[in-house]
């Protein structure tokens, strides 16, 4: 049933129980979770406001407006319509347009310089129709500039080049019309998960030393670009030391589709540091491995929009939230396992179901224990405190030694051997016997 045309009331949602329930219901209709402290969030306008559209006393739409300030207590400098939603039975009645007008008024009332709308892939046509165009400097839409009376304003088509932020002051360009160049992704050794692109390995003109980007001695993640084309050529990724158990966020990031295209570094940028991600997310199947910067998972759980994945190799994607680097994702990391010391060009044989399950179990337990607080074996007051660590070492050894006659391209024994060695040397087992 379509809502009959009634007077449309637009107002800011308050921290009342009634408004908290209305916003929660609209967010549920939009498929979004609602933070526990929604009432307190609505009661404050420090970081933004939520606008509600009502017809006949019923909330039929909302717009979450968030702003950035040049200084913590300064005026609003830039604002984003982070989320725009209208109930299905109230659409095509001008509700979304009215919410955008109200959001613009909120920003102008605070003397904000500019405002943008973070849009999904299906929203572009509507936003152009109501007077917004793709922004050349943000992955968002902005209002058409005010024109002189009688002037004709041309709305440009969506550009094929997006601007992304990799680190403070480091700008990337994603050209969706260009094919991504061959790249190589390296991983920290103990995980023994490394991807390679054959084209890059057989190109004698490229080397890591002849690149611009993250310095060689940087302890964070690394990104290196070809000096002439400034196209991405190499990544070095470290698994975060902290594990986050968050199935909903893991599923949200794992199911995200990929953007395709060439990533290039802004010409004026030279060496820079890329801090490692802070939280790792994965499940027992190791179907995907996600690393997120601090605060990203909380923002996604709170309904933040604008998450996108940019593919940089067949299995690896860089993640961006509202245009800023947010972490990375590997799909099916087990298909890319390589023992340390393998020849660079050796391709692994596919893991059969049994070997995959055994290796996934060892790697999952190793990753969980390694990212969790643990006691040094020499300081354990009870053998049970280190029993899970001892068990993992023995299981890794058994997997490594039980397949000595396997095909030399089988990666499982070598990876299990890497894990056993890491447990032995890094967790202090040399103190409790071989």
Structural account:
By secondary structure, the chain is of the alpha+beta class. It folds into three domains: 8-146, Gcn5-related N-acetyltransferase (GNAT) (Aminopeptidase, 3-Layer(aba) Sandwich), CATH 3.40.630; 167-335, no CATH class; 349-431. 25% of the residues lie in helices and 25% in strands. The chain has helices at 17-29, 38-43, 95-109, 124-129, 198-201, 247-254, 296-301, 353-370, 384-401, 412-426, and strands spanning 8-12, 48-55, 58-69, 76-86, 114-117, 132-134, 141-143, 161-167, 170-175, 184-187, 212-213, 222-225, 232-237, 242-243, 258-259, 262-265, 279-281, 288-292, 307-311, 316-321, 324-331. Helix 8 packs parallel to helix 10 and helix 9 (384-401) runs antiparallel to helix 10. The protein is globular.
Give descriptors for this structure.
globular; disordered C terminus; 3 domains; alpha+beta; seven-stranded mixed β-sheet; 25% helix; Aminopeptidase
Q: Strand pairing plus helix content: what structural class?
A: alpha+beta
SS strand fraction: 25-35%
Tally of alpha and pi helices: 10
Task: Determine Rg (CA atoms, Å).
Answer: 26 Å
Short description:
This protein is of the alpha+beta class and 434 residues long. The protein has helices spanning 17-29, 38-43, 95-109, 124-129, 198-201, 247-254, 296-301, 353-370, 384-401, 412-426, and strands spanning 8-12, 48-55, 58-69, 76-86, 114-117, 132-134, 141-143, 161-167, 170-175, 184-187, 212-213, 222-225, 232-237, 242-243, 258-259, 262-265, 279-281, 288-292, 307-311, 316-321, 324-331. The protein folds into three domains: 8-146, Gcn5-related N-acetyltransferase (GNAT) (Aminopeptidase); 167-335, no CATH class; 349-431.
């Amino acid at each position: 049933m379509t809502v009959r045309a009634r007077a449309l009331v637009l107002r800011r949602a308050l921290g009342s129980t009634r408004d908290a329930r209305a916003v929660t219901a609209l967010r549920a209709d939009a498929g979004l979770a609602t933070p526990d402290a929604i009432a307190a969030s609505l009661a404050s306008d420090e970081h933004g406001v939520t606008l509600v559209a009502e017809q006949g006393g019923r909330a039929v739409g909302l717009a979450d407006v968030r702003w950035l300030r040049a200084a913590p207590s300064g005026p609003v400098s830039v604002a984003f319509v982070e989320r725009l939603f209208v109930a299905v039975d109230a659409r095509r009645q001008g509700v979304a347009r009215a919410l955008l007008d109200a959001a613009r008024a909120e920003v102008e009332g605070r003397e904000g310089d500019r405002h943008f709308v973070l849009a999904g892939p299906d929203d572009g046509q509507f936003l152009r129709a109501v007077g917004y165009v793709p922004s050349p400097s943000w992955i968002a839409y902005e209002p058409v500039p005010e024109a002189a009376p009688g002037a004709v304003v041309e709305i440009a088509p969506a550009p094929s080049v997006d601007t992304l932020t990799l680190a403070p002051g480091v700008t990337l360009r994603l050209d969706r019309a260009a094919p991504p160049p061959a790249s190589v992704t390296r991983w920290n050794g103990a995980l023994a998960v490394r991807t390679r692109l054959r084209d890059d390995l057989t190109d004698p003109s490229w080397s890591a030393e002849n690149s611009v980007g993250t310095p060689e001695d940087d302890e964070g993640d690394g990104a290196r670009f070809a000096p002439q084309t400034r196209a991405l050529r190499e990544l070095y990724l470290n698994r975060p030391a902290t594990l986050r158990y968050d199935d909903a966020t893991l599923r949200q990031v794992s199911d995200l589709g990929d953007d395709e295209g060439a990533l290039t570094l802004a010409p004026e940028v030279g060496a820079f540091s890329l801090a490692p991600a802070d939280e790792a997310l994965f499940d027992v199947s190791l179907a995907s491995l996600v690393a997120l910067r601090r605060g990203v998972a909380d923002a996604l759980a709170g309904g933040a929009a604008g998450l996108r994945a940019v593919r940089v190799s067949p299995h690896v994607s860089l993640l961006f939230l509202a245009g800023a680097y947010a972490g990375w994702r590997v799909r099916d990391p087990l298909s890319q396992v390589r023992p340390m010391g393998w020849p660079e060009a050796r391709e692994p044989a596919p893991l059969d179901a049994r070997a995959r399950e055994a290796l996934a179990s060892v790697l999952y337990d190793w990753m969980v224990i390694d990212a969790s607080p643990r006691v040094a074996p020499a300081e354990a007051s009870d053998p049970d405190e280190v029993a899970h660590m001892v068990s993992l070492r023995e299981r890794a050894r058994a997997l490594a030694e039980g397949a000595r006659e396997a095909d030399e391209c089988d990666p499982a024994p070598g990876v299990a051997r890497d894990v056993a060695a890491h447990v032995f040397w890094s967790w202090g087992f040399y103190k409790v016997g071989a």
